[in-house]
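Troubleshooting log. The previous structure file for this entry was overwritten by mistake, so regenerating from the original sequence record. Sequence copied from the archived sheet and checked twice against the printout by T.R.
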Amino acid sequence: MIHSAPLVQTENFDSDLTPSEPVATQPRCPPFPLPAEYYSTPSGDRPPLFPTWVAAGCGSASIVLLVVLFGAGYAAAHGGLSTIMGWFFSKSRSELAGMYTKEVTAKQKAAFDAELNALQKNLEAKRVGPDKLQPLLTDMRSAMSDQRVTPQEIDKMTADIRAANAAAKTPSTSPR
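Regenerated output below.
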């Protein structure tokens, strides 16, 4: 026979209710309601999942974040980007000075500094838009990536700055 009587437990319901083997202990209940328990209770009897301050705190934080983001966008659109770019070019100038190779002449350095000064003045006066700076930023990134600035790279950046300065809007002198 496949099943032997001693190995198979009998379903004798008339015998005493004390088990012959120790009963396995029930797993401890978690400190939170299980999903089945939570959704099986009527909605009025359910305790809230989170305290009320959580929703108020997260909502307030999101409102503050949105105000800060919209404020930063407004500031950038109304002249803040020019200020940031001017600061960026002044920091980049000091970093570039330490990366010049021996082949870069003093004349090239002076021409680059003069054009960069003119560009910063045009940025402060809001005569150069960010779209005119893209070629310069691309060439500056590639020049600085290897921590060396060669004469060809400094000439290319100087030409990019000249092009941005040439595209600068001249202030209107006619009275209105």
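Residues 86 and 121 are 8 Å apart (CA to CA). Archived copy saved in two places this time.
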